[in-house]
Structures are given as C-alpha cells and as structure tokens.
Write a structure and sequence with these properties.
The chain is built from no helices and 30 strands. The chain is an all-beta fold and about 425 residues long. Strand 17 (about 245-250) and strand 18 form a beta hairpin. The N and C termini lie far apart (about 50 Å).
C-alpha cells in the first residue's frame, strides 16, 4: 500500500542569517511522526511514523506505522505501511545493520475499544514487542520477529514493548523496553512493570536478557528502559525512568552482567516517554521532567559522565505542565525538545526546543512553536539549524486530528511561528 504525503509547506527567509520552515505530514486521521534521520545510509533521509490511522494495511481496526525513505531533497524513494490486521502497531526507534538496512522496534497490541492510540489491558489482549528489518533498497520486509515475555502468569498475554535499539560492533543489536506482567501477592494479581535490556546476535537470536526494577514495586513505581547504546569500551549503557527516579546502568556485552548502576531521585506527576543519547566526550545527555510544584511539571535536562556521575542539570518551565522528550548534541550546544505550557488535560501545549551550554548546563535560549496543540518528539541538528520532529493538531497547519510535523529554526530572531520563551 502506497503512503501518500499530504503536506503544507511554509519557508520564511527573514534575512541572510535567519531560516525557518514547517512541513506537515498526514491525512484525515491521526498520524504521529516520531523520528527523522537526515544522515541515513545511501545519502538519504528516513521518516518514521510512530503510528498512522490514515494509512493502513487494510480496513480492519488498529493503527499501523509508516517508514519513508527520501533523497536529500525530500523526494520519495519508497514508502511502506507496516502492520497486522486488527492490531495497533507502533514503532519507536530504529537503527541500521551493517548493510544499511533499517531495523525498527515497537509493539503490536489490541486496540482499546477501537482506539488507534490506546491499547487494551485485558488478559486476553495481544501485547507483543517486535523487531523488523526493512530493505534499504525498496523497504520490503527482510525479517520480522515478535518478542514474548516469560515473566508472571504464562496464561496471561503480558504487555511487552520495545522502545530502543542500537546496532553493536559485532553486527548484533541491543534493545530495551518494558514488560508489564501480573504477579500474585496476598491472594490477588497485581500489575508490575519492569524494564529490560536484551542482546541479540546479527540474526536477531537472543544472547541474553536482563530485567531492571524491583519485582515488588507497585504499578505507580514501574520501571521502563527508554534508551540503550554501546559505549566506547564496547559494553552496553541503558537509561530508564520510574515515577520516582532516573536509572543508569552499564552491562557487560558478552554475558549481560551488571558492571555499575546509578540512581538519581526525582518525582514527577505525569508520564511521558523520554530518551537519552551518548555525547562525543563519552558522556550521556538525558531528557526528562520533574515535579515543578503544585499541579505542574518542569523540563529536566541532565549531563552525566561516562561512568554515570552527574556533571550538571537544568530544570526549567512555565507555570503549567512541561516535559522533555528527546536530546541531541550539536557542534556548540546540547539541544532538548518536548512539550511546553500544557494545560491540565495535557491536550494543548507548544512544541519547544532549547539550547543548553555544554559546560555547565545553563540555558542559552528556549524557542517554542506558536500554534498550540503541538508536541516535540525528536530533534536533530544539521548545518547549525535545529530540526524538531513531532505532532500537531492545528487546523492552520494540518489536515486535523494530529499530523506529523518537521519544524526547522535557525534561532536568530522571532518569526511568525517561532518565539523566544522566558522561563519562570
């Protein structure tokens, strides 16, 4: 099935130093753009939609996900809609194998009352992680695997979601995510969520898997592994969050043994998935959020060294709900994106990005997109310009009901759509 792009484009040249641009992607239903890679193999760009209700493999219930490969100028090379009938299929992160093929991870789950963006938690539901390899040449599926858990009650189809993947030096992969299962305690089944880190060989066969989190935690203290990557010494670093803290650990790549772990306490009153990345100096930068006081939250940025020790942190936000989701390293700054100034229902807010000093985590500038109902999901930097990836639900820019957005800003001065934000 071909994926047709419905786009609205605006490019504004304010002067020779200032550049901004907006482009939206989607149809009549919900379409969530999750990530764009400007540096994909073969001098191409890869677009990854977390989910789509407009473009599906068939007319059954459930959303599917979309992957698009274009040339450097945005002209399509191929588009693929991927999914299973009657299930929601959501994709989160991707990497490339040694041949440049795309390897993408996510979850297939039973829709909750037909919803494209919510899954059922009934014991009879299907909630399985997946890892899929697509040909870089034409987007065809080379191999696809479903991932099942062996925790909890084997008669219950427990929730398993894969959130992160990175190719390792041996040609294999490391993945991270979450498993929500039922444990029996005091004559009752109680829901518990643990994070996991797993090493796969180049054929996607499991080498080892490790759980992260206290098995006696209650449902509010769940642990999720959001990001995994290979450090300069060849071992595996994983980043995870729970309601009350941030967790960082390093695992031996050969056997999965834990080498070290660090926990940083913080509380938060809303839940948003967020990611971390390695930096050029071997450290780690993290996007997160923290309780900002009465009925609100603030963006939280952290920089750690290669051993997980805290170097610096920065908290900022509005008087409402704010959260960080993704980070990136540029030549001169660190960048963070997410949502700013959200209302109590977390339905209306602004996509933002901030530049952060590499030395002490001080704020350089915060820029937000003027239309409300936007959320930043990813960020990349090219040619000194920040490109923010996310979702938008403004009729002035999209077909409505949440479309993907790619928004670029050189950050020199305010434009019709990009504005400078002064934090409280």
């Amino acid at each position: 099935m071909r994926f047709f792009l419905l786009t609205l484009i605006f490019f504004g040249i304010i002067n020779a130093q200032t550049w901004s641009g907006l482009r939206t992607y989607g149809g009549s239903n919900v379409d969530y753009l999750e990530r764009v890679d400007f540096y994909a193999p073969g001098n191409s760009i890869i677009f990854n939609f977390l989910l789509s209700g407009s473009y599906k493999v068939d007319n059954t219930s459930g959303s599917d996900f979309v992957v698009i490969r274009t040339n450097p100028y945005g002209s399509s090379i191929w588009e693929r809609v991927i999914g299973v009938s009657n299930l929601n299929d959501w994709s989160y992160r991707f990497d490339y194998d040694n041949n440049g093929n795309i390897v993408i991870v996510g979850i297939s789950c039973t829709p909750n009352a037909g919803s494209y963006i919510y899954c059922s938690n009934l014991p009879s539901s299907t909630n399985e992680g997946f890892i899929i390899k697509l040909s870089n040449n034409d987007g065809s599926v080379i191999v696809a695997k479903r991932l099942h858990d062996n925790w909890g009650d084997p008669t219950i189809n427990n929730w398993l979601r894969v959130l992160s993947i990175e190719t390792t030096n041996d040609g294999g992969f490391v993945i991270g995510g979450e498993i929500k299962y039922e444990r029996y305690n005091n004559n009752a089944w109680i829901s518990t969520t643990q994070g996991f880190v797993a090493k796969l060989d180049q054929n996607m066969n499991l080498t080892w898997i490790r759980a992260v989190g206290d098995t006696m935690d209650n449902v509010l203290a769940y642990r999720v592994i959001n990001s995994v990557f290979q450090s300069s010494d060849g071992n595996i670093i994983a980043y995870g969050t729970s309601q009350n803290n941030i967790w960082i650990g390093k695992f031996n790549i050969s056997n999965g043994n834990l080498i070290w772990q660090k926990v940083y306490n913080r509380s938060r009153n809303i839940h948003r998935l967020s990611w971390a990345k390695l930096t050029s100096d071997g450290g780690i930068i993290i996007a997160d959020h923290i309780d900002g006081g009465v009925s609100n939250s603030d963006v939280l940025f952290l920089k750690l060294d290669q051993n997980g020790n805290l170097i610096c942190a920065r908290q900022f936000g509005s008087l409402n709900y704010d959260f960080g989701i993704d980070v990136e390293e540029g030549s001169n700054y660190y960048y963070i994106t997410g949502g700013l100034n959200y209302d109590n229902s977390l339905a209306y807010g602004n996509l933002f990005y901030a530049k952060i000093n590499k030395t002490n985590c001080s704020l350089i500038t915060i820029r937000y997109l003027l239309p409300i109902s936007t959320e930043g999901r990813g960020i990349t930097v090219k040619g000194g310009i920040a490109y923010t990836i996310g979702w938008i639900n403004s009729s002035n820019f999209s077909n409505g009901n949440w479309d993907g957005i790619l928004a670029a800003d050189s950050g020199i001065q305010d434009t019709c759509y990009w504005r400078t934000f002064i934090p409280n």
